Amino acid sequence: MAGQQRVYKARIKSTQSLKKMFRAQELIAASRIGKARDRVAMATPYSRAITRAVSAVATHSDTSHPFLVEREDTRRVAVLLIASDRGMAGAYSASVIRETERLVQRLEAEGKQVALYVAGRRAVAYYTFRQRELAGRWTGFSDAPTPEIADEIADALLDAFRAPAEDGGVAEVHVVFTQFVNMVTQRPRVIRMVPLEVVEGVAPVEENDALPLYEFEPSPEEVLDALLPRYVRTRIYANLLQAAASELAARQRAMHTATENAEDLIRTYTRLANQARQGEITQEISEIVSGADALASS
Amino acid sequence: MAQLEVDVVAADGKVWSGTARQVSAPAADGDIGILAGHTPILSVLRPGAVRVVPAGGGAPLSWQVDGGFLSVDSDLVTVVVDSASTTAGAAPTGH
Question: Taking every annotated instance into account, which residue ranges of this chain make up the domain ATP synthase F1 complex delta/epsilon subunit N-terminal (chain B) (predicted)?
Fold first, then answer.
């Protein structure tokens, strides 16, 4: 009987130490998320300005640039998956990986070959365990990405996009990341990075409106050459920041739930331990009483 | 009327925003000065100094930039740079 009590006591103790770990993770995530959201807010004006400019060129010039037209010479497409480095974030990595799998299936159904680029240790582990080939991998920054990392990823993707078909060039670049809607909602999203589909921030042209005459210095081609790689870099950086904020929010929520579950478990085990203790006392008393009765009746 | 709405943004945040009388920037083919009513333009910037004369008077602002681009559309000027540092003589900005 005493064994039962001891088992419960041990369980309470281990659950308590787990609870402390969950609580610490929750607090760490909570303290970092403010900074992550600030970074998202800081990067927004830049990416909005760049998106507007790209839309303006795409609308006001009839230049065709490799970034704007579909490539016909290859069936390869690149998919960049942005997930987290560490777990303990609930379904965060799982849902973004699921979204990627769905995209990959859709692309393959269209007869395209998918080259996977993966950021985040969890996703890298997922694919290496399944022995899938990765075209590129980056780890170790998921909760605080830097512009340098974004540049590195963007350069790899742009190189692949510019490469000729026989060197593994890709016709499209898709990005799967988690959009930070608010503290409660984070949504996995798929966007096609290149060829671009930009229409944001440009007013639709009215029938009788003369198109404003845009000047490009030095020339539309050169403006696009300078603008588009920068645009891709900015978008990737923005996506990384969104993903980081989402990861921290998901982690904070998951760890909060885990802490509460641990408290529930501790409560249940305490009750069971008390029951076992009382059962033991009752048994001892009835043993003594029945022993005394036996002596008295003899 | 006849004022420019200016936004100067860098990769890591907004640098300056407000109304101005004149903006000058190192465009690809030589320095460019922009006043209200300028034709829409989109230009690549070389490394150099971007200067803004605020509409409310006061000292002109100036930043050293290392490349970026500039867009003007119906008196809305956006200067997008990779990084900007305030040069000596310019007033400190709110951001």
Answer: 4-84
One of 3.40.140.10, 3.10.20.740, 3.20.20.80, 2.60.15.10 is the CATH number of B4-86, namely 2.60.15.10
Q: Which amino acid type is present at position A173? A: V
Report the predicted TM-score, pTM, of the whole model to 2 decimal places: 0.83
- Chain A residues closer than 8 Å to B10 by CB: 46
Which residues touch B51 (CB under 8 Å, ≥6 apart)? Answer: B22, B23, B24, B25, B60, B61, B62
**Cα of B46 to nearest chain A Cα, Å:** 11
| Domains of chain A as residue ranges with CATH | 61-198+217-250 (3.40.1380.10)
pLDDT tens for residues B45-78?
A: 889 899 999 888 778 889 898 888 888 888 889 9
Give ipTM to 2 decimals. Answer: 0.77
Could you tell me which of B62, B32, B36, B34 has the C-alpha nearest to residue B50? Answer: B62
Cross-strand partners of B33 = B24
Give the pLDDT band of residue B94 (cuts 50, 70, 90).
Answer: very low
Contact B28 A60 (CB under 8 A): no
Apex CA A55: angle with CA A157 and CA A161, to 5°? 15
Retrieve residue B1's tokens.
């009327």
Q: What is the DSSP letter of A128?
A: H
A225-234 burial code (b ≥16 CB/10 A, e <16): ebbbbbbbbb
Most A CBs within 10 Å: which of B7, B8, B9, as the mutation test of the A interface? B9
